[in-house]
Write a structure and sequence with these properties.
Layout lengths: L1 H13 L5 H12 L4 H9 L4 H36 L20 H14 L4 E2 L5 E3 H4 L19 E2 L2 E6 L4 H10 L4 E10 L11 E11 L4 H16 L5 E8 L2 E10 L16 E10 L1 H6 L8 E8 H9 L6 H4 L2 H4 L7
Parallel strand pairs: 1-5
Antiparallel strand pairs: 2-4, 3-4, 5-6, 6-10, 7-8, 8-9, 9-10
Helix pairs in contact: 1-4, 2-4, 3-4, 5-10
The chain binds phenylalanine.
Length: about 350
Amino acid sequence: MIEKIEALQKEVEEFEAESPEQVEAFRIRMLSKKGLIPALFQDFKSVEPAKRKEVGMKLNRLKNLATEKVNQQKEKLEAETRGQAGEVPDLTRPADFAPNGARHPLSVVRNRINSIFEKIGFVVSEGPEIEDDWHNFSALNFPEEHPARDMQDTFFIEKNPDIALRTHTSSVQVRVMEKQKPPIRTISPGRVFRNEAISARAHCIFHQVEGLYIDEGVSFADMKQTLLYFAREMFGEKTQIRLRPSFFPFTEPSAEMDVSCNICGGPGCTICKYSGWIEVMGCGMVDPNVLDNCGIDSKKYTGFAFGMGIERIAMNIFQVKDLRMYFENDIRFLKQFESAI
Ligand code: PHE
């Protein structure tokens, strides 16, 4: 019995196939139900007990070796045919076209806004998205009972009513005023959060760019001229602006700024809802209380502030009617902005 096993072992070790058919014939001869190795397992039943251990081990080793040999020969032949099929890489072939990524349309618009203000000396400042009550509300002159502090509007951190997701990036400007002496010229782009129902025109997460200019003798006329410059750079040189009285706790006087509709140029269309004007931002002269809260002498300095939603402006520029598109990351939508820079 042992000799038989050893003879087969040698045969298995030396086997080299030249075709898949030879491998298959080898497998059938050795391992199929009626093959030589299963036959040895049959004979094993009559081996005397004293020799069982040794014979059993040898037999198992033979079976494993034969199985491995079959797999190894199969792989060897497959690798050879792959090579013969001419699939050696063609080193002279031009490289595959690597598609370029594109900027998200909101980044495109934010970058444009930033660079328009950077040209006239504004510096970008950023701050935390999780804010305390002081930076988001109190320093900005929000009275205790102001509705914007309400649960309806603000996402508070559970168990700590002092901490919330910022509802505007004015909070960043408080941080700048606390740290820096005038003159201050800064813009704060960033993500903001409000507890609003999601629709085509509103989302609970959106993006803003807010601006702040503080120095001696800054006037409402300075603000108007700065914002006119911005509107013309952003929407085209024929753009007109108009300021309507408004209210914000942190500015006095306050205004909403509209730009003449860049789609129809005035007579009215669906984008401007036949008014000829599109609302783009809030603005106003910084309330002296805010300056004092941040350690800036309100007798010496004045300033203006403004804030706009990036989605609004992007919807207008790219004529996207549903704001939710900006958040879905649908590649078919995003691909359309590949050429926008
Ligand atoms: N912070 C205001 C908002 O989020 C915008 C604003 C900024 C208005 C500065 C006036 C001055 O809506």
